[in-house]
Amino acid sequence: MKGKVVGLNKDLCAVQVSSGLTIFEILGGHVTEIGDIISGNLESVGSETLYNETKHEKIDTFIEDWSCSPEIAKKFLSR
To answer: What span, in angstroms and rounded, lies between the C-alpha atoms of 22 and 5?
Structure first.
């Protein structure tokens, strides 16, 4: 599955996918920017290695939630 980064706050990232928004924490100091294309298992919870197709690099993440509404995503990103 692929999605586009639509929100960031420190190490939290929101990615728009077909089922809603996936929220994950970026581990290991990777830099992700608005507009980056992220692929991998974006419909799970827990530790996942995703791929930033824009920057051509693997990123270690912890997925907090998936299939979120914009309102829930805003709450995660405002922490």
So the answer is: 9
Distance CA 74, CA 55 (A): 25
User: How do residues 24-60 score in pLDDT, each as one tens digit?
Assistant: 999 988 889 999 999 999 999 999 999 999 999 999 9
Percentage of the chain lying above the pLDDT 90 cut = 81
Query: Above 90 in pLDDT, residue 79?
Result: no
Question: What length does the chain have?
Answer: 79
Structure tokens of 3? 């999605």
C-alpha separations of 24 from 30, 33, 40 in Å: 13, 13, 12
Distance CA 22, CA 65 (A): 6
